[in-house]
Specification:
Bound molecules: zinc ion
Distance between the termini: 68 Å
Helix content: 40-55%
Number of helices: 3
Radius of gyration: 28 Å
């Protein structure tokens, strides 16, 4: 199994998106409820190409959104005041 690098996958995904867009360009709503390919709408090719396009766009968006974030120091949590201290302070 071949593993693609980030750049290779991005190119592959862009090619898949372009192919889906080319397919969608040939399947437009025609007269009535018919696709320009002759199928009744919703055309199964349109549904498959749209799903493939959205899938690849989501993958690309995930890759592009990946950012190395700084490491944050843990925030010290406030310690609960012991009961005896609350009693002495007159808080209860
Ligand atoms: Zn069609």
């Amino acid at each position: 199994m071949r593993v693609l690098s980030h750049a290779q996958f991005t190119v592959y995904a862009q090619q898949q998106i372009e192919m889906a867009e080319q397919m969608l360009a040939r399947h437009r709503l025609g007269p009535g409820r018919w696709c320009s390919c002759g199928r009744q709408m919703p055309c199964s090719v349109v549904a498959a190409a749209t799903a493939a396009k959205q899938h690849m766009q989501a993958k690309v968006a995930l890759l592009e959104a990946t950012v190395v974030l700084p490491v944050l120091a843990p925030v010290a949590q406030a310690q609960p005041v012991p009961l005896w201290r609350r009693l002495l302070a007159g808080l209860l």
